[in-house]
Amino acid sequence: MKIRFLNETYNIYLREDRYGNGRLAIRAYIAETGEPFGVITTNLPDEELGEGEFFVKTYSENVWVHQLIEQEVFEELPGRYVSSGFVEIATCKKGKNYVTKTY
């Protein structure tokens, strides 16, 4: 999948892992080099999640994650935000264009 960030185009792929509490962790990597590009999810262990849901960081250095929502890689759940510090964290599910690379 392609995204734009800081006036550059990147071809990225996603990998899944798990946080210590078993919740889904998703990271992005640069396809050509395998270099880490960014951590997409955030772990908020005190907040409730439904089946298949996860928290997505879309602020600060992760503003590019909005492009993955627009590309239907993630489905943002309307009205499902939680506060963390000074930001609102989106609750998402995997979208119809969600694909990961296994390792």
Description:
With 103 residues, the protein is mainly β. The protein has one domain. Helix content is 6%, strand content 49%. The protein contains one helix and eight strands. The strands form two sheets. It has a four-stranded antiparallel β-sheet with strand order 1-2-3-4. A hairpin with a 5-residue loop joins β2 (8-18) and β3 (24-30). The longest helix is centred in the middle third of the chain and has 6 residues, at 65-70. The protein is globular and about 35 Å long. 19% of the residues are buried. The mean pLDDT is 92.
Counting H and I runs of at least 4 residues, what is the number of helices?
Answer: 1
How many strands? 8
| Rg value | 13 Å
The strands making up the biggest β-sheet line up spatially as 1-2-3-4
Number of domains: 1
Overall 3D shape: globular
What structural category arises from helix and sheet content? mainly beta
What sequence of helices (H) and strands (E) makes up the elements?
EEEEEEHEE
Uncertain runs: none
What percentage of amino acids are in beta strands? over 45%
- End-to-end Cα distance: 18 Å
Report the sheet with the most strands, covering strand number, pairing sense and barrel closure: 4 strands, antiparallel
Proportion of residues in helical segments: under 10%
Mean pLDDT equals: 92
In brief, what are we looking at here?
This protein is mainly beta and 103 residues long.
